[in-house]
Amino acid sequence: MTRIKIVGLFASLVLFVGIVCFLTRAGHAGSPKKLSVDGAVFDLKSSSSLMVYGNVSDKKFHPVADATVIVKPSRGASKETTSDSAGLYSINGISDGDSYAMYATKEGLGRTSKVKFTVKKGENNDFVMCFKFKKEDTSTGGKPTPTPGLTPTPTATPTENSKPEDLVHVPLYSNSNPFAQKIESNPEIDSDSKEMVKGLVSEAANGIVLAVKQYTVPVYYADENTPRYDVEMKCGKQWEIGVTKMKNIPIPDWAEPSEDNHDGEINPDGCGGSDSGPDEGDFAMAIVDTTTRCEYDFWQAKKKNGAWTASWANRISIDSDGIFGKGLSCRGSGFALLNGLIWPDELRNGRIDHALAFSFDLTKAGGPVSPATDSDGTSKGSNAMPEGARVQLDPALDLDSLGLNDYEKTIAKALQEYGMILVDDGEGLSLYAVHPMSAQNNPYEGILPDKDYPSLENIPADKFRVIKLPEQDADWQKKLGLEENGCADME
What we know:
With 491 residues, the protein is mainly beta.
């Protein structure tokens, strides 16, 4: 007996049929045969180790070759494979008792819908998953068919009907933004620098990475024609801030928050929680209105039944210094979400002219240091570091001697000249890049590995030093509040 479970809008069924993604070996030759509906999950009895396999099809259900199929466990590293000429794929190493999210991507077709499933403890069935793109595949031999003479020209504000094909880097914040300031020659080093660097080294042992597809921020552009929403903020009541709604916010129809690995879905009735325990996802996004020059930041955003909610959201002018003066940003530190993020054009050009945002797990309790205005630090160890601290890679270090790849060298050079500023608490040691889901095309293609967290392992963590710190602001909580800036009303 084959047990079929259809995820999504379909009910679970038990059928006595031997279906595997319906005509899964159909090809393009002759009259094309159609593949199955996407998102169908078939649990098939197998004597082998657990695996997931199936097919990938286009809008008209024709098989798609050379699509990248990605499976993301709730814990551990992602796995990926490529579909063959018949649209077939398989991935081994699926573990029982774990939750997964899967989707397929291909240049020119974008990304399929994401399908989530959980493997029961003790499960011994394989999973067959079928994916369908929303566009028709016009590729030949697995490569997109070129259109002669046409070169996409990105614009700051995308077309009103769809997500822009390419990501545009709109300059953000004023010259007073601390991330725009170079570190002076021979700066004073903090007396506790060596101890704090030990903390960096210990966290780097868990991985020093660039967050590209997980736990970072997609950016979407809006203008006067963008639909407007009143965004309910679930944490407003719990935090006793006196507001629960940010009003009349422009959010494009194609906007979606980051899709972070986590356990459970965001609790629509709670603040920062989930249906199955503490939530591990940021689900962040930023909207930049190019008409009003306002940025809207969201933490744990969600659109349901045509309405937007978030655990928290706030607004700031992109002509400001990029700091929420009274805290309460969507970072733990009071910085705007896009402050210190790496953009693809910077890596492509080999030059980053600003400090970089970073997070790690030893954020110090007792308040932030300037320029940070807020803190979620909890560590009391001697190797902890307060949010707002600026860390510099030794400028005397010969980068050519380290075996750095191109993107590591660009980042390392910025760390020597501008440093990195601690903006949030998080596992390991992470820097941030703008999320590629900001555009249809992958803006990092040919620049970064196609991974959630490209490694920065060749940058030596023990060669960092902490610039002299101001005093921690022990009274920061008394100063928290909302600033008026003309970008949106709160109520």
